[in-house]
Structures are given as structure tokens and as C-alpha cells.
Amino acid sequence: LKIAAVIPAAGVGSRMQLSYPKQYLKIAEKTVLQHTQEKLSQLNYLSHLAIAVSADDPYFATLNLQDERIVKVIGGETRADSVLNALRALQADAPDWVLVHDAARPLVTVADIDNLVQSCLAADEGGILAAKVKDTIKRGTSHIETTVPRDTLWQALTPQFFRFNELLQALTDAKQAGSEITDEASAMERLGYPVRLVAGRSDNIKITSPEDYELACFLLTKTGK
Ligand code: C5P
């Protein structure tokens, strides 16, 4: 069984208000992207690790990433476009399954990834790491319109793990339909595929705002995660 991974790392990270993308922020001498790549590189069952970076990215080449399975791919305008480009790059020697993991989530654990892969393969279904919502959730703009019952609410994390051909089809279809999707599962859901929710650690945060970065620095350095 052949499994590849895709790391979309072609975002600009505008919400961080930096002059460079957030995946190149440094935590303990290494960039966020390196921390993430090193987690995935620990998975010896991966055939390839495709990393999508933007066409004019001057930083990636300087990282000197140490894994012969890494394939650099040019990303697209949206995260979904970046993942689609990476899947197309892998198509010639296509894997059976693919893991997609945000560059901006360096705190993922190998144990959680293994758990996702094992539970999806055992069920023969795609799935995602997810964390149950802990806070009470409100819908509204300036004032609360409704309180959303949270017992069946989950935060979608990554990795997300799907059969390669099905994900390629689903992302291609979503793009053709002009559907704005923010994760792979959304594309699979559109086509009616079942997607498993596999509970993962809630500290697998996506670095989006400055306070996420502070938290990631603490977790990666102080606790040795
Ligand atoms: O913007 P957001 O935080 O949702 O990005 C999630 C991941 O997708 C990040 O790792 C980012 O680098 C990546 N991305 C991408 N191509 C884009 C936009 C985002 O690879 N056009």
C-alpha cells in the first residue's frame, strides 16, 4: 500500500502581519515548515512528501531539508489549488492514499497521524483528525443570533487522509464548480463520500495569529513536543 503526503506551504499568512509567510517564522532555530516536515519525515511508510510553495518563494531553497522523499511543487492561489497541484505532481507515480497536512501545524504528533492512518485503513474510509469543540458556540455578527448546540461540533484539524484518486477527483470537481473549500474533507463531502472523524489532540493548532505563534513556541520548546 503506497501512501504519500502533501504539505501545503504556499500561503502568504496575511493574518500574522509579517513581511514573510508564517511557515518561515522561527521556533528554536528552525522554521515552522521545518518542524512540520520533520514530524512527517518520521513516518517511514511515506513514499513521497510533496511540499507546495509559492512560485516566488525565496526561502524554501535555503532550508536544506533532509529527506530524499521531498518533492517541491508550485502552489496555487488557494490552499485547495496548492493541494491539487501537489496531487497532480504525484500522479505519474500515484500513491493509493494521501495525507494532507498544513505547514502551519508543527505541533501534530506522530501518534495522532498513525492513529488517523490506522483507523481509516481499518475502516477503508477517508478521515480527518478533529477535536471536539469545547467552548459554547454563538452565531451572529454584532449580537448573538443563536447558540449552536455543541455536542456534535468538531474542529477540523489536519492531517486529512483520503484515497488519492478520490481526493484528486473531489478537488478537481470543487474547482470546476467554483466551490470555495477550506479543507480536503469539504471537497469529499460535496461528492457524498463518508469522512471519518478521528479524535486528535487539541493542541495541534494552526499558527494563524501572533498568539498562536506564542503558544506554538511554548509547546515546541518548553515541552519538547
Ligand atoms: O491560510 P491557512 O492558514 O488556512 O493556510 C493553511 C495552510 O495552507 C498553510 O500551511 C498555508 O501555507 C497553505 N496554503 C497554501 N496555498 C495557498 C494558501 C494557503 O499552500 N494559496
UniProtKB/TrEMBL annotation:
Annotated site residue numbers, Positions MEP for the nucleophilic attack: 150, 206
Catalytic activities: 2-C-methyl-D-erythritol 4-phosphate + CTP + H(+) = 4-CDP-2-C-methyl-D-erythritol + diphosphate
This protein's UniProt keywords: Isoprene biosynthesis, Nucleotidyltransferase, Transferase
GO molecular function terms noted in the UniProt entry: 2-C-methyl-D-erythritol 4-phosphate cytidylyltransferase activity
SUPFAM superfamilies xref list: Nucleotide-diphospho-sugar transferases
InterPro entries xref list: IspD, IspD/TarI, IspD/TarI_cytidylyltransf_bact, ISPD_synthase_CS, Nucleotide-diphossugar_trans
Involved pathway(s): Isoprenoid biosynthesis; isopentenyl diphosphate biosynthesis via DXP pathway; isopentenyl diphosphate from 1-deoxy-D-xylulose 5-phosphate: step 2/6
Residues with site note (Transition state stabilizer): 15, 22
A matching Pfam family: IspD
Domain of life: Bacteria
CDD domains, sorted: CDP-ME_synthetase
UniProt record similarity statement: Belongs to the IspD/TarI cytidylyltransferase family. IspD subfamily.
Protein function: Catalyzes the formation of 4-diphosphocytidyl-2-C-methyl-D-erythritol from CTP and 2-C-methyl-D-erythritol 4-phosphate (MEP).
Protein name: 2-C-methyl-D-erythritol 4-phosphate cytidylyltransferase
Gene label: ispD
